[in-house]
């Protein structure tokens, strides 16, 4: 189930804000009844009409995108900064990112117009493992990395256990490369976790999302997911979590 204005926007008829205006003006019907409430939700079997015209739903599309640094994980930006949808100008469907990567973080980001698919992947109960590689300041002690593995207390609560692997260090520059796997999706979580142990992130990249990798792509590239990959992602996210979560 999704909010009515979101469904209208995703069908390509208008922006979400314009859709809200149409609803409030009584120009939208759901199953033959005029609705004026913005909070109403509709499902795939509901019949929606806008200005007397039945809503035609877009064909669902799914993309794997190698997001560059310095790009906003959004469909628009009030400061006119580059956003992820700028890389999909040839795509007619109104796609949007599944979750987000920070402005200064690069790596694997999923894009779709399928709200149910996005909601399943982002649901806190079904979060899929995500692998990041971080270049951090300093050379963390094993005890510090163990804190990340066990879960560390941040301002919005304790993080779930993480898997951490020390990859390399540069003693001259006093930097380290650390791989960390988490299944949560809090705002700037990886950066805040390393801040909490005194080793700020200098560079961050998401290299894997579930079983998906960036293989064959360079920054700014995208490819369409195969039907089998979409099916696998749904299955991965809708299990009881035991097979998804860190051992």
From TrEMBL:
GO annotation, cellular component aspect: cytosol
Domain RNA-binding S4: 2-59
Presence of keyword Nucleotide-binding: no
InterPro entries tied to this protein: PsdUridine_s_RsuA/RluB/E/F_cat, PsdUridine_synth_cat_dom_sf, PsdUridine_synth_RsuA/RluA, PsdUridine_synth_RsuA/RluB/E/F, PsdUridine_synth_RsuA/RluB_CS, RsuA_PseudoU_synthase, S4_RNA-bd, S4_RNA-bd_sf
Gene Ontology molecular function: RNA binding; rRNA pseudouridine synthase activity
SUPFAM superfamilies membership: Alpha-L RNA-binding motif, Pseudouridine synthase
Example GO BP: enzyme-directed rRNA pseudouridine synthesis
Key words of the record: Isomerase, RNA-binding
EC number: 5.4.99.-
Residues in the signal sequence: none
Record bears the keyword RNA-binding: yes
PANTHER family linked: PSEUDOURIDINE SYNTHASE FAMILY PROTEIN-RELATED (PTHR47683), RNA-BINDING S4 DOMAIN-CONTAINING PROTEIN (PTHR47683:SF2)
Family: Belongs to the pseudouridine synthase RsuA family.
Protein's UniProt name: Pseudouridine synthase
Taxonomic classification: Bacteria, Bacillati, Bacillota, Bacilli, Bacillales
